[in-house]
Amino acid sequence: MARKVRDWKLLTETYSVTQQNRLSRYESSKAIGDRIAFKMLTLRSQFLPHYFGGVPKWRLWLRSFGGKRVLPDFACVGAIKSGTSDVSAYLFQHPCILPPLSKEIPTTNTDRWLPYYPTVREMEEVAKEHGKALTGYFLPMIHNVTLMDNYHAARPDAKIILVLRNPVDRAYSHYKWDLLLGGKRASTSQYYKTFADYVNFSLDLFPAMPVPSSSPIQLLQAGIYVKSVELWIERFGRENIHILRAEDFFENVATSVCGIHDFLGIPALKPELHAIVNQNPIKAPPADEVTRAKLYDFYRPWNEKLYAVIGRDMCWEPREPSN
Predict the structure, then answer these.
(1) Is it the case that residue 18 has pLDDT exceeding 70?
(2) Other beta carbons within 10 Å of 57
(3) Strand partners, 119
(4) What predicted TM-score, i.e. pTM, was given to this entire model?
(5) For residue 25, which of 33, 15, 16, 35 has the smallest C-alpha distance?
(6) Backbone Cα Rg of the chain
């Protein structure tokens, strides 16, 4: 099969723009030069070929006149900070996969997804050239029951890729994410000064009270996968679920991505490697081993239940922390 050349690097530009935007908000600089740069960045974000999150309303309005559109054939979901952005960037390299306008569509209402997706005609053209055409959904909302139900009602035949990351490593990335989204004020909070403070506060409140957070889901709950995995399997069937261990993906991108290609029924094509996208640029207090040990103890019974459900030991043993 001849591989169509796609300038996939243009699709990753959104992460650079988003990162600069977040850093500008994090730094809260009032210098004239920084304000001008922010305005230019805002202007550039109106014309991106692909978005990480929110899309300008005028772009969606124009697309409403483009013809009949499709809903995604597959979903690639995980908890936040599990690597779904990087996985999506690699999948978009495949000529059979047409990317949505936004990686993270801000609604679980599938009727409102249509403006983000390719037209029937675009899908037919790709299928004619490459034998098959697919498009996917990539929001890291593995725990969202409404998403599961709505997507199953719209596409009961869909295939699901579940990205599962060692919950202890994911928790540290979650901590850094809260610091970035919360701005410098967050780092001065007594609950966020160190990773230990954040985890101890979360453990103390669990499960009775939510922790004040900029993230859409709580630190500890985000790493408890078993019930969510059970619900995805109940709706779509185990044969239509592909479990991607995030650590395997980080260690061997090509093998992991080609495994997804096989699962989706398209030719396995070795991807072109690139720098990790959507990486948190800020420096944060390190993850100390005492705190990590507490988290391993907390997650152990939940992980064991997960292993029983999927019939696989994910080997999430204590090791050196990763960012």
Answers:
(1) no
(2) 8
(3) 69
(4) 0.89
(5) 35
(6) 20
